[in-house]
Task: structure prediction
Amino acid sequence: MNTLRRTAVAAAAALLSISTAFAQIPQSYKNIKIPQLHAMTPEKPRRVELPNGMLILLMEDHELPLIRGTARIRGGERDVPAAKAGLIGIYGQAWRTGGTVDKTGDQLDDLLEARAAKVETNGGDDSTFIRMDMLKGDFDTVFPIFVELLQHPAFRQDKVDLAKTQANTAIARRNDDPMALGQREAAKLGYGAESPYARETEYATIAGITRDDLIAFHDKYVHPNNIILGIVGDFDSAAMEARLRQTFESWPRGFEAPKAAPTDIHPAKPGIYFIKKDDVTQSNIYLVHEGIVRDNPDYYPLVVMNEILGGGFSGRLMNQIRSKMGLAYGVSGGVGADWDHPGLFRVWMGTKSGSTIEAINALRGEIGNLETVPFTRSELTQAKESILNAFVFTMDSKAKILNQQMTLAFYGYPVDYWDQYAEHIRGVNTEDVTRVAKKYVHPNQLRLLVVGKPSDFDKELSSLGPVSTIDVTIPEPGAKAAGAAPAASTPEGVALAHKVESFVGGKAAIAAVKSMKETGTMQMRGPQGPIDVEVETLTEFPESHRQVLKTPMGEMTVVSTPDAAFMTSPMGSRPLPESQREAMRKESRQDLLNVLRNIDNPAYTFAITGTQLIGQVNAQVLDVSADGSAFQWLVDPTSGRVLRKISQGRMGETVTEYTEWKTFGGVNLPVAFTVTSGGQPGGGGKIATVEINPPIPPDTFKQSEKK
Result:
């Protein structure tokens, strides 16, 4: 009984203590006293300037036994001709994968992976980079590789070809992601399509890039007077400086890369722009006009204004358009400021298709409110606190501090720039924010871009004003890597096309084929190696196809029609990305029977452009444009038999060798073929049976409702 009483007394005392503690807690979070952030003065890296112009920044960090280094080299994508757009992407990849004079890229992979080390290269708009990352104990092994790759890369041709193939694949898929598509086209509206800050890489520009171009770029720009080298990690700065001086001090100066940014900016006229994308259920909406350069004295008030406008859930855009009106999945933006050239005022919003026009009106309203709705002290305080609280995490490691200092040095900003940042933000007041909002945000100068499915919009987009439609069709790569499709037919080209027609069976027999069913096998290239697939294809001419593939992973059905393309698998049914849909449409236009039906169609052109020896046959090269889709047939001029087809696909140049033909229902068709894509074996196929004009069930090309 005494024990129980003691327990009760103790419990009562504890409850009293807890209730007293709770009574001391403020009744509102607004009453919590938050101390001012401490002033930050991060340690600066050791700065070494070599006589040859190389700038070295050294930052000791002994927390872990690691050393990391980055060389930033002036000169990038904006410094190459428009006709070579994409060069820096190829350069940045083949620089590392191409290896050095002494070691291939694959040999470097093995050597570095054995030490959990990295040496990587890449490029950007205004510079290229080479980086190293290693354990401290491996520095003497990895650093010489870094130096050799910096000074003497090999750019081996097979790795250049691989990089170009991957670039072509990216081009083929660039319209698949609606958000990336909108961002790309919004940049064109803000800067101009030909500006180095927005220009597009195309198949033709990739085709024009050679290994010699990469070597020439490297020889022109990679000199010590264009390099900032930063190293951070577990080392002694004096010893590291001595090592770097010994390595680089004798490297002579070279071409001085220009520091001034290009000024070729010609924005589109203000207005409404539209990109039709029928495979989406959400509209992506962009508003753009010119921004500022970061050295503008009004940069700091604009940072605060941007936070008030688009700073997450506390910003006006999210608070009003998403939280209160329920019109947006996401919405953000503000006045952009790049380091050495004007950024863009850019606002993005994603909304369901059925609320597109309503959401645009709401977004425009909020932009207009920047001029008319006063900025409150509460908004100002919250924005500044949010900026300053996040600011500390931009320099919470020695590596981040070094990177900041390298950026400042590259663009010519003071070394104490970040030391002054917080004080500049604290000094912004509501009058500053009001002034810059009126000065730098121009509601009447906006380019409005909408990416979406117009049939699902709540109203016609034209209800907002005149609409300019943007064509994002990816230009065909041409009949061959170095050429283009013929602009018009030649008599010799048409005659050769008719010879192919005769070999296949003649005009009447070809015209009589309305549909076709084929069965056979294919070998496809997969991530783990070749895959054998049973295939059944049903075609209704001119361009409806249903292909059933029985694979080791299960059965898949792929359907393509003029109106839709989708795939059904054990995972369900889904639309195909736009790049795949377009690739399948292109294949339909290039189909043997479709082309031969259109010899007299002005949209199809045929021209002989040379000869090529295939085995013992001196084949004639027939360049064909099938309604804008370009490719080549290599034809036996004696028989009219097509021996080879060359086209450009997502993996680069695709070569199809037709090794066997058979006659079915009076029509001669290829029944065996092999494929090479981007210089790599891509598989092949063998057709076992062909049925001409089989019955086509009504739902053959319809997508199942089951998901």
